[in-house]
Write a structure and sequence with these properties.
The protein is α+β, with helices and mostly antiparallel strands. It folds into 2 domains: 6-47 and 133-201, no CATH class; 51-129, no CATH class. The protein is built from 6 helices and 6 strands; from the N terminus they run H-H-E-E-E-E-E-H-E-H-H-H. The strands form 2 sheets. A 3-stranded antiparallel β-sheet has the order 1-6-3, with no helix packed on it. A 3-stranded antiparallel β-sheet has the order 2-5-4, with no helix packed on it. The two termini are 24 Å apart. The relative contact order is 0.20.
Length: 202
């Protein structure tokens, strides 16, 4: 089976782009790595990766650093084990809603001293994490089965960039009779590859 290491993915991406690969000449394969990283980011919503985290709450403090690899907050179990009634003295009141804002998790309204005392200072939660392409295959979080999908997404990114570069040469990219883009232009290929990526990821 082909390796999921970044170097092996770059090699296969270059081969799949054929002559178009020559358009990307940044040192250290930076262009191809960018295409792969963007494709991996797109997989976050199609192949969600759920991880667990925990915050240490402080009374009346609303914001806490989010995990560095967090793509989107999912849910928490904090307070779910409490059993009681609103008229009980131990009733914690309205629990905070969590929002991710600029790399922080915001609990709104901020947890009160009473809530922290009753429900605990540990706030366990689940979140969707970004995919990682590691130098070693073991560090890559995209599954082996999605290798082809990852490369397809990277091809779409490469063609999208080529289409942007060629946008200043519109006359050479369009059919002389209809003014429509030819099927073999980067823009048309980017559109087709992106659609194929969505179809296979569904």
């Amino acid at each position: 089976m082909s390796s999921m290491a970044r170097g092996a993915l770059v090699t296969d991406l270059k081969a799949s782009l054929l002559d178009a690969a020559r358009a990307f000449a940044a040192p250290d394969d930076a262009d191809f790595l960018r295409h792969l990283d963007r494709a991996a980011a797109a997989l976050a919503s199609r192949r969600p990766r759920t991880l667990a985290g925990v915050l240490t709450l402080e009374a009346d403090r609303p914001n806490y650093p989010a995990p560095a690899d967090m793509w989107r907050y999912k849910t928490t179990s904090w307070g779910s084990s409490y059993r009681g009634n609103p008229w009980d003295r131990t009733w914690p009141g309205r629990l905070p809603q969590v929002r991710e804002i600029d790399g922080e998790l915001w609990l709104m309204p901020a947890p009160t001293a009473h809530q922290v005392a009753m429900l605990g200072a540990n706030f366990p939660f689940f979140y969707y994490a970004r995919h990682v392409l590691g130098e070693d295959a073991a560090q890559t979080t995209v599954s082996d089965g999605d290798r082809g999908l990852l490369l397809l997404g990277a091809q779409a990114e490469a063609m999208r960039e080529l289409a942007m570069r060629d946008s200043v040469r519109t006359a050479s990219l369009r059919d002389g009779f209809s003014g429509q883009m030819r099927n073999n232009t980067p823009a048309a290929l980017a559109q087709w590859l992106a659609a194929e990526f969505e179809r296979r990821a569904a």
